[in-house]
Amino acid sequence: MPAAHPLTNTYGSDQHGLICGFVFEPGRPGRPIALSDAATWLARPTAPGQEAAAGFVWLHFNLTDATAEKWMRGHLPLPEAYFDNLRDGTRSTRLENIDDNLVAVVNDVAYEFAFEPSEIASLWVNVHARAMVSARLHPLRSIDRLRQAVKLGACFDSSVALLNHLLRDQGDVLVHIVRETTLKVDRVEDGMLSERLAPQRAALGQLRRVLVRLQRLLVPEPAALFRLLRQPPEWVTEDDVDELRQSTEEFALVIQDLQALQERIKLLQEEMAAQIGEQTNRSVFTLTVVTVLALPINIIAGLLGMNVGGIPLAQDEHGFLKIGLIVATFTLVAFWYAFYRKK
């Protein structure tokens, strides 16, 4: 009997951090492929100009595996700029043509997104005629939707078509976030009418921080995108360029919705600040009125409580009543002065 091989826990990833691998042939859905088979498939020679007819491979890696980047460097024809992006602190979304490769940094939300700024992470993508390579550190929603679409039998004629589908999935995710945020803002606005301002103010601040970070990270760099659409790589077809241009235009519309939602939240915050200021003014006014009303009795009580000679009405049997009437008279005068005196 052959010896049993121990099971290795890879936490959802294959060897060298591979999360999933698919090979696409013209007119056929993607079929799973292992790393060793993918390297052999990519090593097959193809005639110039026939890369599209030969199909392409998609490999998706988990960078928390320390061996993933090393394997990619040793077995995949990736430009050095791709690995520079992995270590670069700049996370703005961009898509560039570098050494006949489409090198992209795509920011996306976590799979279990709960409207926290920390739940926005990057996906690094490199697209060539024969391969699309993507890598991430945290589970992301858009790339997972793309993986599910491939598993359900979606067909892609080129690697750029796969990238376009990823961008459209990201746009759909953003549309969903905008809708959820709009509902949350509506609830906050309803809460403002009931004057429950404290929790609503915190909720608005959190939503605005998330939207600002989404806009800052998701807006593509216009210069790089313009250069790419004007001079794409030779292996990218006109249809793929048109699809890419349409995807970016749809993405721009979503960004405009984000900006409009930010402006609405800003106006609500200003209205909430005005309401809080008005409540504070009312509280200060009430405190001032109470202080004024209590002033006569405090002054008279202080004078009569000094226990010195010559205190008036000390020997009068109706002295307490007279003092009470004096205090009541001054209090009524102060009340009239505070509430009814016309300026």
Explain how this protein is built.
The protein has 343 residues and is of the alpha+beta class. The chain has one domain (15-274): 2-Layer Sandwich (Beta Polymerase, domain 2), CATH 3.30.460. It is 57% helix and 13% strand. A seven-stranded mixed β-sheet has the order 2-1-3-7-6-5-4, sandwiched between helices. A hairpin with a 3-residue loop joins strand 6 and strand 7 (131-136). Helix 6 runs antiparallel to helix 7 (197-218) and helix 9 (238-304) packs antiparallel against helix 10 (319-339). The longest helix has 67 residues, at 238-304. It is rod-shaped and about 120 Å long. It starts with 17 loop residues before the first strand and ends with a helix.
Summarize this, please?
Its main location: membrane. 57% of the residues lie in helices and 13% in strands. With 343 residues, the protein is α+β, with helices and mostly antiparallel strands.
**Could you say what the CATH architecture is?**
2-Layer Sandwich
In sequence order, what are the helices and strands, one letter per element?
EEHHEHHEEEEHHHHHH
CATH superfamily: CorA soluble domain-like
Overall number of strands: 7
The amount of helix comes to 55-70%
- Average of pLDDT: 79
Spatial order of the strands forming the largest sheet: 2-1-3-7-6-5-4
Radius of gyration, taken over Cα atoms and rounded to an integer in Å: 35 Å
Q: Which structural class should the secondary elements be placed in? A: alpha+beta
Number of helices: 10
Overall geometry comes to rod-shaped
Organism: Rhodoferax koreensis
Keywords: Cell inner membrane, Cell membrane, Coiled coil, Ion transport, Membrane, Transmembrane, Transmembrane helix, Transport, Zinc
Subcellular location: Cell membrane
GO cellular component, one term: plasma membrane
